[in-house]
Write a structure and sequence with these properties.
heterodimer; A: alpha+beta; three-stranded antiparallel β-sheet; B: alpha+beta; ten-stranded mixed β-sheet; three-stranded mixed β-sheet; 15 strands
Amino acid sequence: MAAAARGGAERYFTRWYKADVKGRPCEDFCVLQHSNRICVITLAEAHPLLQSGKTIKSINYQISANCSRLQNKVSGKSKRGAQFLTELAPLCRISSSDGEEYTIYSCIRGRLIEVNENILSNPAILQEKPSTEGYIAVVLPKFEESKSITQGLLTQKEYEEVLVKRLNSSS
Amino acid sequence: MGELSSMSSLTEKDRPIVELLLNTGTCPRCILRFCCVASQTLYRCPYKDLMKEVKEFLKNNQEKEDTVCCDVVDPPCKRIRLEHAEEGPDDLNHNGAVQQIPLVNDETTAMENSAVKVCNVCLGILQELCEVDFVKKVCQKVNSADYQFTSFVFSVSLPPQLSVRERAAWLLVKQEMRKLGLSLAKDDIVQLKEAYKWIIHPQLSEELGVPADGKSLFEVSVVFAHPETDEECHFLATACPDCFKPAKNKQSVFTRMAVLKALEKIKEEDFLKHFPCPPSSPKNLCVALEVQCNNGAVFVAGRYNKYSRNLPQTPWIIDGERKLESSVEELISEHLMAEFKADSFNFSSSGREDVDVRTLGNGRPFAIELVNPRRIHFTAEEMKGLQQTINNSSDKIQVRDLQLVTREAIGRMKEGEEEKTKTYSALIWTDKAIQKEDISFLDDIKELKLDQKTPLRVLHRRPLAVRCRIIHTMKSEYIDEHHFRLHLKTQAGTYIKEFVHGDFGRTKPNIGSLLNRTADILELDVESVDVDWPPTLDN
């Protein structure tokens, strides 16, 4: 084993990105895809919530009157009973103390396995460790779709180009 | 030989049944069965002799107490005497000469000297298919299969239509008995399979040179079929449709069990409507579809050490492509497979480790089931030799305490997987610098309770759950500002890697949370698996 640049939990994950989701500038997400198909939805570094000065006021997994991500229950190996997500299915809504509200989207199709309840009790970790302890949700794509889900996403390199473009256009 | 008439095996009351069955094409052994004759030795007499005896019996009437002596075939004078006694108009053929056996028709008399007519009840099972030539063929197949065995159990599978024919014969006999005001208990009729085994067991035993034993692990099985009459069962499907479940994999719906069930349900009148009584005489004998040999599985146990960080427990194949060369189970089993000459193996162990984890110390208990082995006897010396061969063949694994065990012993190993403690050594990296004092507190933590959610790396194939696991003790060894070694003794089923890196915070507490840093595991070794099975041998 080699020494890890980041924590060992992320070693076997490939990073995929979705930028400016729903046209909202810099609302970028990072999907960590494990070699076993399991995906972890996280905020990308550029997301407004992770910029300095932002304080999180509340995190709400109740995304509609009938749907709370907290009520997601899965059973068995095949994760029966899971809420099914499409790319733009909301996972949670986060408000910051400056009055802004952000919706976190699934970014991929699949079964919702779990949402991170630790950030409810400790919102700080969302900002301190967005790529590990501060993850939003774990999603399992359908077996047949496990390769195709990345088609709508950007590779690390492609995302870096997006970031460069943003930098250039703003300067 | 003349036991038929001299012992009270067949008595006067049997005469009408014997006559009826013989005339309708039933073989002497089936006749004996329906007369409830239970003397095993009688069935073992050669077919020709039995046929002769049955016919003799029919010729003799009650006055014949001074019957045929045991080992000599009827002396000509006696036969003539009998013929005269039985002579009647029917006895004369068109030449006016007395026929030898007046009671049966021309056809079967001719048969006596030429081919044997196939029995309409057993379809040859109690005729040729239990006699010396067939036995020789079976034993040839057994011997050429080259198995090691000290006893055998013989199992035979009969075509389902035999049950139908048996029922028809039973109804025929019952009818006849009713006419005579007698009764016949169905349970006293000798079962076909039972009679078959009486006849064939001693012959197989003699030819193979080992005894027949119901508990033997070596099984010789023969499957008989009679394609000519396969359709005979079909009427049962219309009469009792709920007995027949839809066929899987193109197999026939008319299984033995289903046919028996239907025969129990169907009313006598309905049966007789659809099936000839007496049953028709077939042209051909049953055929033996296959003679299969099978030895019961043997179990080999031991403990293995794993020295490679690049070796999976089981073959790692994705989409038909092997991702990593070899595996623990293959390295151990391939030599055993070769020596025991088995068809296949099932490898199990008391827990397992990841590809990149070594197993040190006494090693991990394992057991291999060798399926259908040709060789089963190995001395302790030979097992030691086998162990040496395995150890010489690879430096990635080593085995010890290799021994034969029973199936029951496997349970002890599996119980170890769930109940026994394990000790590990982990090489840990931290992002922020550490000093000796920062980690020494770990040594004082006892019985640390963890809540471990199913690790992400196995979540695709395991249910989501939270496991409570205990770390009994820890001992740290400082290396440098970013590294230390941790020895741990844990409850069975604890995910060590996740305890170190935290698995996105889904294992709590974890080394990262305890040290308030980000931690990673660089190396993991299993130091011991605390199961005291299998017994240690002096290796």
